[in-house]
């Protein structure tokens, strides 16, 4: 198919094996957002997916929480873990199966999309908490899903990655600009469309849309800046970099808006490695 | 059956005294520094993340260039390597993100890492025989601890030999 003829709608309708979030996970995301949510109400949604409920129980009983007794029912597990951890776990368990695949259109081998997305999720939450400019409530989710568009676009870029990276380097183009030149849109546009189809909150869709170009937001969006910086830190450290994690533009205005100085970056990167290690240990056994 | 290469994760230092391979995957701004004594057949690799030790991070010796280089040397010697026989190669330090005018603000961790590792190599008077740093490509390094051969792989260049750490015959 001639890629010049494609529209985002074509991509989303003609790509087989598009990722999806299970209904139970979407329901848990909505419920944990509700001010009226209770452990019972969240557990009710978790019960729609037996595998998810088992994972929540397994996590609550993990050595990380070190409880002296066994947690036997899901509502109690929700109390132990807290709403945020339950939501993060539901997302990790639901996205791992398709994020852990290779996405060769971006030069990403098996596990690399997952490693990068998980890394950005952890870093985004750390930055949101550290800077206190954005609510950290959705930070993990935003980080985890920021590259959703790549999962749909990858197949359309297959067998072109070497030529594309070569062209991008020769012309000093960031990869998202190259996507726009080749396709007329980029993975950010595709991710935002997909996020809207999933009825994700606007705050998450905005992150998918603007995470490479935070200065294009009509008004600054703190979570977009957190993800932009998290992406920079994670990519710089080579986490799930693949072939295309190259030459994206970093906006220094992001640092200004987050009230950080360049000198803070090394400490942030070092702290990120420590937090990332803990998160990995925590979710490792329950993701797969 | 050939054993899989031993992965040297961020901050880690790995030493090996037999046949095998050491690797750091997908280096962005990080640096892999590897050393090899072909007589003692002792090799080692460290995956350096940042240039300078942060006040509260003294325990993470492999993470920072200023502590990682002396520690790699120390561990190689402890495993039986002779300092005079050791040859080194360094790989990584890429700028995988563009910063525009932010470069001047020190955002380029890769370049700062390269400078810090080179400074340590000079201080320790180490014999650096192979170097592939900078640019914007992520690199994967592989060192064969039987032959001392070092190769580097990137998406666009494929796998290429960098150098041999065997030294002069």
What do these coordinates show?
- The complex is a heterodimer of chains A (288) and B (169).
- With 288 residues, chain A is mainly alpha-helical.
- Chain A has helices spanning 8-14, 23-33, 39-46, 50-60, 74-81, 83-99, 112-131, 139-145, 148-157, 161-170, 175-183, 187-197, 202-210, 222-236, 252-257, 265-287, and one strand at residues 248-249.
- Chain A is globular.
- Chain B is α+β, with helices and mostly antiparallel strands.
- Chain B is 17% helix and 36% strand.
- Chain B is built from 2 helices and 11 strands.
- In chain B, the strands form 2 sheets. A 5-stranded mixed beta sheet of chain B has the order 1-3-9-10-11, with no helix packed on it. A 5-stranded mixed beta sheet of chain B has the order 2-5-4-6-8, with helices on one face.
- In chain B, helix 1 packs across helix 2 (109-123).
- Classes of the chains: A mainly alpha (288), B alpha+beta (169).
- At the A-B interface, helix 10, helix 14, strand 1 and helix 16 of A face strand 3 and strand 7 of B.
- Strand 1 (248-249) of chain A pairs parallel with strand 7 (97-98) of chain B.
Question: Percent of residues of chain B in beta strands?
Answer: 35-45%
Structural class of chain B: alpha+beta
For the terminal residues of chain B, how far apart are their CA atoms? 30 Å
Provide the residue-averaged pLDDT of chain A.
88
- Along the chain, the helix and strand elements of chain B come as EEEEEHEEHEEEE
Shape of chain A: globular
Could you tell me which chain pair has the largest interface and how many residues each side has? A-B, 34 and 33 residues
pLDDT averaged residue by residue of chain B: 91
Q: Name the assembly state.
A: heterodimer
Largest sheet of chain A at a glance? none
């Amino acid at each position: 198919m001639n890629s010049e003829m494609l529209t985002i709608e074509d991509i989303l309708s003609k790509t087989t094996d598009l990722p999806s979030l299970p209904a139970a996970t979407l329901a848990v995301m909505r419920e944990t957002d509700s001010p009226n949510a209770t452990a019972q109400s969240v557990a009710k949604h978790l019960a729609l997916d037996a595998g998810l409920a088992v994972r929540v129980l397994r996590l609550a009983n993990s050595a990380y929480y070190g409880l002296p007794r066994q947690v036997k029912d899901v509502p109690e597990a929700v109390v132990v873990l807290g709403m945020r951890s339950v939501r993060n776990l539901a997302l990790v368990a639901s996205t791992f199966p398709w994020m852990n695949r290779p996405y060769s259109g971006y030069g990403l081998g098996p596990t690399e999309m997952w490693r990068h997305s998980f890394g950005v999720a952890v870093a985004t939450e750390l930055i949101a908490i550290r800077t206190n400019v954005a609510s950290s409530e959705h930070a993990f989710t935003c980080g985890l899903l920021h590259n959703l568009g790549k999962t749909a676009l990858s197949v359309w870029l297959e067998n072109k990655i070497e030529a594309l990276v070569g062209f991008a380097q020769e012309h000093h183009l960031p990869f998202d600009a190259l996507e726009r030149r080749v396709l007329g849109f980029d993975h950010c546009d595709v991710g935002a469309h997909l996020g809207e189809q999933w009825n994700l909150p606007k705050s998450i869709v905005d992150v998918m849309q603007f995470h490479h170009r935070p200065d294009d937001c009509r008004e600054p969006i703190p979570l977009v800046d957190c993800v932009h910086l998290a992406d920079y830190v994670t990519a710089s450290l080579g986490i799930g970099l693949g072939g295309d994690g190259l030459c994206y533009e970093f906006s220094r205005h992001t640092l200004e808006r987050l009230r950080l100085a360049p000198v803070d970056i090394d400490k942030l990167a070092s702290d990120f490695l420590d937090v990332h290690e803990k998160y990995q240990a925590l979710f490792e056994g329950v993701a797969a | 059956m050939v054993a899989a290469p031993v992965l040297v994760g961020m901050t880690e230092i790995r030493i090996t005294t037999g046949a095998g391979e050491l690797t750091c995957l997908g280096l962005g701004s990080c640096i892999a520094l590897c050393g090899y004594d072909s007589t003692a057949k002792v090799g080692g690799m460290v995956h350096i993340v940042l240039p300078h030790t942060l006040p509260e991070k003294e325990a993470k010796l492999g993470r920072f260039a200023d502590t990682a280089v002396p520690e790699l040397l120390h561990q190689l010697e402890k495993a039986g390597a002779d300092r005079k026989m050791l040859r080194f190669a360094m790989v990584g330090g890429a700028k995988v993100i563009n910063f525009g005018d932010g470069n001047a603000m020190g955002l380029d961790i890769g370049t700062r890492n390269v400078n810090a590792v080179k400074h340590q190599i000079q201080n320790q008077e180490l014999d650096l025989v192979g170097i592939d740093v900078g640019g914007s490509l992520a690199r994967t390094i592989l060192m064969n601890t039987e032959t001392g051969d070092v190769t580097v792989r990137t998406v666009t260049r494929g796998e290429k030999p960098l150098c041999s750490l065997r030294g002069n015959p």
